[in-house]
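Quick one:
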Amino acid sequence: MKKHTRREFGATALSVIAASVLPAPFVRAADKKYDPGASDTEIKLGQTVPHSGPGSLYGVLGRVGEAYFQMLNDKGGINGRKVKFLTMDDAYSAPKCVEATRRLVEQEEVLALYGSLGTAPQTSVHKYLNSKGVPQLLLNTGASKWNDPKNFKWTMAGLPLYPTEARILAKHVVSVKPNAKVGILYQNDDFGRDFLGPFKKVLADAGGKAQVIMEQTYDLTDPTVDSQLINLSKSGADVFYNITTGKATSQSIRKVTELGWKPLQLLSAGSTGRSILSAAGLENAKDIVAIRYNKEVGVPRYEKDPDVIAFEELRKKYLPNIDPDNTIAFAGYGQAATMGEILHRCGDDLTRANVLKHATTLAGFHSPYFLEGINYSYTPDDYTPMKTLYVSIFNGKDWDLSGQPMTE
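Output:
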């Protein structure tokens, strides 16, 4: 399969926009194919994210999607069609996710869903969407279950798969602390558990000198994680693997400092957003190790990056109330641009099967959100979103990347 280079797709997100608004080649009306959610004039997309509740900071993903497609619509749409994007609140609740998703499919009749968030909520609609043949694309979760094209071909993750991330972090621990004593705090659901097995296996395969000595869990509804952090700090662990999200991440980073505990800290990539670290106190996050695959906004290193500049232009015009350093918003921008690219490639065949075809052949496409050297790796037989990642260390202001990205 031909690998598309960054140059071919253009240096900035604006190239994606420009390509999307170009008129489609002349075709006979008979060549146009539509499923529910598509017509000569409109493409309807859906999404569920927590606009309220404990995960509400991720609601910005939906607001950015609205802004991005409004920008495209203002420029003429995608292949001459306007995009109607419906982002609905599921409050990170499985029952609410089911209700919202059924409404999007059965009442709104969307062509596809993209960018929905959360392992537990999306698991609740996984079988339903596959039974309906509705694409469930670019999920904001890296659970390994999403890489199952044989049994659930309509569902694809949009983040690095958690086992990939966990294995690379475990290899890093073995290399820098071969006799590590690891304490783990993890979210008590599929999200949290998906990191544990692969991480422990790498430690065991390395000879077992580095090992996990304590595990603590928390639920999203817990007001704090203070007691868990106190237990871990007293365990003798010199490595802290922090598998948390949102508020719990900020609380735990801050609590480690308050306790005077100084372990090597590992953080899941989905929780390295600037807004999360800022809430923890950037000085408290210094020296945290995490997998990186994306650029930051609001930091000097990327202020002249064409993709960051393009995002900043969008933010100023359509989303002035969103902080310029909101990396979660930038992630939403990258996913919206990717979804726009998929739809552009579909041309006038706007069937769900064709949307899936172009989503599963994105290998080589470079999102404006990604660091250099990282591209999507999807193929029809392997839905791993990306296999190449960087190990990085937070210096108190920005992430210092390892010299070369690591490929699993």
